[in-house]
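seq as requested:
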Amino acid sequence: MEANKIKGPAKCVTLPNGDVITYAERGEQNKEIMFTGALYHHTFMPVVEELAKRFHVYAFIMRTHGVVEEINTDGSIHWANQWGKDLYDFANYLGIKKFHYLGKCHGTMPGWWLIKNHPEMLYDFCSFFLGPHTLPQNSNVWMEASQNGKMQELLKMSIRNIESGLKKKQEELKCLGPNLEDTKALMKYMGFPEILWDNDIETMEYALKTTNVPIGYLFGSEDPLFNDFYDSNMKLPFITKKCHFTILQGERHLMELDCPDRIADEAFFFISQAHKNYA
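struct tokens:
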């Protein structure tokens, strides 16, 4: 169990295929079920706690080792497919046939896997701070800062309240420990939903235009990743069937460090509207 990747009580299950899933369970008193995934749940846990005021939330760890089934032709692991399959198997193991899904940035990838492979399992999908890319990238501010090791600069671009945000990030890194895996090899699977369609943009666009799953997009206007893919992101409401599309002025990529309750409130509003019969 990777309990160090979760702030607070953690659980784990071993699935029939041998996969070990670590997760936090919150809001057990609620009837409606929501899943949310991430590489770790520390600074994002306040969002989970807010969501748990209305939903029974399973916050699972998107693992980076262990039993794998999704293999590329070159023998490498297709982690985007694996994370989606993990969610599918985990939900079925728990006997949960349908649920809400919320993902933020890389945490959206299991949700996009379900959109492609098992949309029948989703009541709706909150795809926050990441959407499929259908147009060329506008800039590369985020990745350049990340790859050049400019972490202080990256955090300053990502948080409004720098002092408290840095403290929370430092506490998170301390809990995760010195053996935290290098995510560089995972990067192409973490932020590019189109990889689930083998980068076949036409087929992916058709899926967006015809899906019956309500999808809610949320972005911050000052998020470098939003602006790095500005054209693609602004195209989303025109190619996603009956989607909900929100840009919050002034918010940045690590919004969970500044106002976790606002992320949850945006999810609550989207979900409350998603199943009303608007024309």
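The longest strand covers residues 20-26.
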